[in-house]
Amino acid sequence: MRSGRSNATRPLDGMGALMHAGTPPASLQKHLEGRARLISRVEKMRRPSRARPALVAFSFAAAMAAAVFFVVRTRSAGPPIAWHVENGAASAQGYVSIAPTAPSARVVFDDGSDVALSPGSRGRVASTSPKGAEVVLEQGRARVHVQHREGTRWMVDAGPFAVKVTGTEFLVAWAADAETLDVWMKNGHVEIDGPVLGSTMGLGAGQHLRAKLKDKTVTIDAELETAETAQASPVNQPPPPADSTLVVQGGEVTAPPPPAAPAGPTWSKLVAGGDFARVVRDAEAEGVGHAVATRSLADLRALGDAGRYSGNPGIAKRAYASIRSRFASSGDARTAAFLLGRIAEEQEHASTDALRWYDTYLAEAPGGAFAGDALGRKMVLVSKSQGRDAAKPLAARYLQRFPAGPYAAAARDLAP
Amino acid sequence: MARDRDPRAATLVWDRYAGLVRGVLYRSVGPGHDIEDLLQDVFVGFFRNVRSLRDTSSLRPFLVGITLRTARTALRKRRVRRWLHLSDDGTVPEVASADVDPRTREALRRLYAILDELPDRERLAFVLRHAEGHELTETAAALGVSLATVKRLLQRADAHVQARAKDDDLLSEWTAARGAGDHDDDGDDQGGDDA
Fold first, then answer.
1. Residues A317, A341: Cα–Cα separation, whole Å
2. Listed residue (A22, A404, A2, A414) closest to B171, CA to CA
3. Do residues A391 and A383 make contact, with C-beta atoms less than 8 angstroms apart?
């Protein structure tokens, strides 16, 4: 891409060099802050919103006012509704798993509402409040029955769509691969928001909506639920007898878990929100050794980030080491090698360790997302520790592979 | 992952491209802007529009395109603010970097004052070509114009900057440092005029 620049014969390229000289480098702090801010914004983008830029300031003020109002109301409205899972189990993050022999897992809320998740589906209870809950259907089908009460606030997120519920019964299906939403209404009324719908769309009893993102089509008809959908247990069906609520896990029959407490924010969410200290505190309270030995990949990833951002490289290293041993075949294991190199270089000033990790990453993921960064950092480290001549081959290699990369200017300086 | 707006994609894309985008943004709009806010705008725009990206190997030019649109918007807003006298006196603020010597800082101030005299497209074409080292075809693609148009934009921008810089002792140091070759060396780009 920059072959023209390598000639460096155009006088005006000197102006470009001047601009480069005046470009302030980004501090690690700014980089991390920016990343946390972006993650938070991307998280929010997963929920459909059509706020226009001109309304953002107003919306923000309104949101703040609503938040204050909500907090005040929440404090006077009692605790969030509790829930538990029948014919399945709930993880600490609110994910619901279905017992292998069960026709569905039933999430029962103590306000009388319930959600039945079909086999093969993936869903979780994202949050609860005194007035309702937010349930996320990431894949598959769920039969939803919301008990109507005054001020009920229920939301079902299905892919990029949000179904706002006040009191109703319906079946919702989200096929992530086909990017298709189906909602079959049994009774009541819902409001659906999301892409391709144009505006918030109301749906009443007996109606069926299908929204296809790929085709950008929306159809509303009276199609009945397919036979396949009947797998989700009818909500009016009496609860299964006590002995059928046993959970089969790892070939052993165990007692059902105690009613799950309302799910708190996941470590990933805490990191996305910049609350790195809390993740570290949680891990320390649990026991870092236990956490790195038992936590999920997502949690380990979050713990590693939290450790790095909060100045706890020891915890971050343990998280990444665990990723590399427990999830050795994952892409995260390779990324962990690069991040271990960054920790060694930035936080421990251990150049030899850093070089070793960068080499590990480059060997394991020569075309990986951080290959340019690993090679660039290696070039800089070698230049500092072994001199410019030693770094020249690395600079040439960098320019060959990443002629417009962030270390290209430094590489050209080493190998003009 | 990015199409699904997976936060993990935000991490990957940010770590991979934030440095590149920050640099292009800073050199495009110059000092006096909150680059971090603009940077966020670029990446949010990326995640908002990434579903329209068919060829994942075009991710970098796709991102650069969003970066340039964001830069143009920022330049336009700044011009309006100056026109409305909402900013100080329209002069280019001090260069934020504390790492450059006073002569370089002054040279930068003068260079961006000259760039401020250019229409936005000429300015961005100049930056892409001379600061980012883009080929003509890449510059044209990034700006969404034809090769013929980008040549015209660059010709005008180069002529203007050269004319304003030639009697400036500070700026001359930077042009002289790059050798006395003919600046009109577009021969490194193959391909004809597609207008």
1. 10
2. A22
3. yes
Q: C-alpha angle with apex B168: B166 to B169, nearest 5 degrees?
A: 110
ipTM (interface predicted TM):
0.81
For tokens 């909402």, the residue is: B86
Q: How far is CA A107 from CA A78, A125, B14, B101, B128, in A?
A: 21, 9, 37, 65, 56
The residue of chain A with its CA nearest to that of B94 is: A22
Domain segments of chain A: what residues?
83-254, 267-414
Q: Which of B14, B19, B8 is nearest to B46 (CA)?
A: B14
pTM of the model: 0.40
Q: How far apart are the C-alpha atoms of A196 and A330, rounded to whole Å?
A: 35
For residue A304, the Cα-to-chain-centroid distance in whole angstroms is: 15
- Within the 108-137 window of chain B, which residues sit less than 8 Å (CB to CB) from chain A? 108, 111, 126-127, 129-135
CA distances from B120 to A18, A136, B35, B71, B74 (A): 19, 45, 18, 9, 10
pLDDT at A245 over 70: no
Give the tokens for residue B187: 């021969």
Residue type, B123: R
Choices 2.40.160.60, 3.60.150.10, 3.40.190.10, 1.25.40.10: CATH for A267-414: 1.25.40.10
C-alpha distance from B93 to closest chain A C-alpha (Å) = 13
Taking CB atoms and an 8 Å cutoff, what residues of chain B touch A12? 126, 130, 158, 161-162, 175, 178, 183
**Looking at per-residue confidence, does B97 or B24 come out higher?**
B24
**Helix-strand-coil split of chain A, %, nearest 5:** 45, 25, 30
From residue B37, alpha-carbon distances to A161, B12, B121 in Å are: 28, 19, 22
B74-122 pLDDT per residue, tens:
888 877 666 554 443 444 444 444 456 778 888 888 999 899 899 999 9
Q: How far is CA B164 from CA A236, B137, B167, B168, in A?
A: 81, 27, 7, 7
CATH class of the domain at A83-254: mainly beta
